[in-house]
């Protein structure tokens, strides 16, 4: 007998845990929007000065800013382990497929640009959008 177990599991979990929309509602009500939390995020992750145009653009999440700034959260290697897929948050500007960007490493400084290199943006995805 090959039955689809999903409807049964859904019924059991709904009776045991209740309606799952409460979790989604809690996230929507209590987790601040990216615009509202940008100042905190930028203040805790960005090491440069915030008293210039770039700093103000990141705090305001200005999508029309001339430069794009992406905070990389995770790097996922491709199947051949030749390149990476980057999971990150766009702090300001707009990112396009085919755009040339400069990737800054962890040890990058304005005085020593050795830890940076140009790269081309491949495909773009929106992860778990609702």
TrEMBL record:
Coiled coil: none annotated. GO terms for cellular component: cytosol; U2-type catalytic step 2 spliceosome; U4/U6 x U5 tri-snRNP complex. InterPro entries: Transl_B-barrel_sf (IPR009000). One of its GO terms (molecular function) is U5 snRNA binding. GO terms for biological process: mRNA splicing, via spliceosome. It comes from the Eukaryota. This is DNA-binding protein. It comes from Schistosoma curassoni. The lineage of its organism: Eukaryota, Metazoa, Spiralia, Lophotrochozoa, Platyhelminthes.
């Amino acid at each position: 007998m090959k039955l689809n177990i999903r409807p049964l599991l859904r019924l059991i979990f709904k009776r045991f845990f209740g309606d799952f929309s409460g979790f989604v509602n809690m996230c929507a009500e209590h987790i601040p929007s990216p615009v509202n939390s940008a100042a905190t995020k930028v203040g805790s992750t960005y090491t440069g000065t915030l008293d210039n145009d770039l700093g103000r653009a990141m705090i305001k999440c200005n999508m029309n800013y001339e430069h794009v700034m992406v905070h990389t959260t995770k790097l996922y290697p491709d199947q051949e382990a030749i390149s990476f897929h980057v999971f990150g948050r766009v702090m300001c500007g707009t990112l396009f497929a085919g755009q040339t960007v400069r990737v800054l490493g962890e040890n990058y400084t304005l005085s020593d640009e050795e830890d940076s290199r140009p790269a081309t943006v491949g495909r773009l995805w929106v992860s778990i959008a609702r």
